[in-house]
Amino acid sequence: MNIDWIREYCLSLPHATETLQWGESLVFKIAGKKMFAVLNLEAGPERRLAFKCTPEKFYELTEIPGIVPSPYLAKSHWVAIKDMNALRSSELQNLMTISYDLVFAKLPKRTQTELAANRAHTSEKLKASIRKSTLRKTPRRKSLK
Q1: For residue 28, which of 10, 97, 123, 142 sits 20 to 30 Å off, Cα-Cα?
Q2: Could you give the percent of the chain with pLDDT greater than 90?
């Protein structure tokens, strides 16, 4: 697991944005509003990845060596991974998606609706663009007159 992989995955989630905050931390947010992951960029033992999880998963994860309650955010069930080898990439990917979903569910309903409508509109534009490009690339048949 490296910084580029984490960054690429977080930004692949719908409406995800990133900002540099608190000095050396990449903060991933949904539509620039609520954070779902924080990656400290400082080298060495201070490098951490923090994210939200369910209360049950919080207690389960903090039993794993290299994963601790996240400073300042533990009361909201955030964990911090201090040892980037504590979890497999697939497990981390699943946990990051859950973090995203938990935070998205806490957004105001109006914001959720707007984001969903925007996503559907963007998806339709993309599909239309693909159809047009496919139609242009299809060779025309010659007439047999």
Answers
A1: 123
A2: 30
